[in-house]
Specification:
Length: about 270
Amino acid sequence: MNNLISFWLAPVTALFHPRVYRDAAKSSGGRGVLYALYLSLIAVVLVMILLAARVAPVTDDLAGWLQKNMPVVIWTPQGIVLENGQTAVTLRHPQYGPIAKLDLTKKVVTEADFGDGFLFVTATRVYIKRGPGQIEDRDITQAGMQTGQRLPPRIRITGDITGQLYKNIKHTLGVVIPLILFFIIFLSILLANVFYSLVGLLLNLGRKQKLGYGAVFTLTCFATTVSFTLSWLRFVLPVAPASWPVVVNILISLAYIVFAFKLTDREAEAK
């Protein structure tokens, strides 16, 4: 079997090369599982590239701006105060607009108080606007923090500390996000191909030369590559359409599954 064409390059060659399906029809289910792992790895790499290209510049810019413009906050067990003595501050980014409001005199916060921002801070609570009518709040006093550690009586929080915290979180997410994505994508591909393999089993009934379930599953995994590749092209290529109905992916996968089974059955007959 030519692994370069029928495995490593299969995300592309599965669109047109018969060898991909010939080799899959001769394989066990393990090849299909390995291929699902391979596709999952490709998907994770693409997601991380997209995050680095589109999301990271925005978050880096926000973090850098916040590091320079955030007022110094003093935390005590009773709540927070601003070191400069102010009681109300609005953090407004020059490009992204209002980000957060601090009003240490406020006791009750409503959705209208947020304005265009998504974060509102009082002396004792932090309010986060998740969406219209969706506001979460957290108690930031010592009584509201669920920690077994004894906190110091006074903590000075500066922009530099916030910037370092962002870097630590970014580095942690750089490890955690790929692992979580890999697990979710691999499980999704595997479950989708288990479902599609049921269609493969039905097609297998009409074959002259029957395949075992392992070969049916593997053939299905490679046949559904086309919808996988086309889906990712929509995100990678700026000229590609933004989206299309899920049913289109399903129909493309089913069409290639039928094609793969007929192709390999016809070649088996010719022998």
